[in-house]
Amino acid sequence: MDGATEFVSFTVGNVSLSGFVTPDELARIESGEVVDVLLRGVIAVHGDVGEDVPLGDVACTFIGGELSPFAPPRGG
After folding, report:
1. pLDDT tens digits, 17-32
2. What is the Cα–Cα distance from 71 to 76, expressed in whole angstroms?
3. pLDDT bucket at 12, cuts 50 / 70 / 90
4. Are 59 and 40 in contact (CB under 8 A)?
5. Can you list the alpha helix ranges (DSSP code H) found in 16-63?
6. Is the dihedral of CA 67, 9, 40, 49 positive or negative?
7. E strand spans, the chain
8. Backbone angles phi, psi at 39, to 5 degrees
9. What residues contact 30, with CB distance under 8 A and at least 6 apart?
10. Helix, strand or coil for residue 13?
11. Left (φ > 0), alpha (ψ -120 to 50) or beta: where does 65 sit?
12. How far is residue 44's CA from residue 51's CA, in Å, rounded to a whole number?
């Protein structure tokens, strides 16, 4: 998992998501900065169904320590 050793878990609506990030990615998420990460080995579980759904690796953006529903525009 290329150094992704830190477990993260969060809930979006009625869906729980869990996966792994690198220690550097976790530090950047916890510091509140805008950060794009690749969550590795993501498993989703819908609260009403309770069945694990493996999603693989999922690209996400965190803003202020929270999962963002959008990715802000980047200069470049």
Report:
1. 999 999 999 999 999 9
2. 15
3. confident
4. no
5. 23-31
6. negative
7. 6-12, 15-21, 35-46, 52-63, 66-67
8. -75, 125
9. 65
10. coil
11. left
12. 8
- Its pTM stands at 0.83
Which are the contacts of 57, defined by CB distance < 8 A and separation ≥ 6? 19, 38, 39, 40, 41, 42
Q: Pick the closest to residue 35 from 18, 49, 21, 45 (CA basis).
A: 21
Angle at 36 (CA atoms; ends 54, 48), nearest 5 degrees: 35
CA distance 76 to 74: 6
Distance of CA 44 to the CA centre of its chain: 11
- C-alpha–C-alpha distance, residues 66 and 4, integer Å: 19
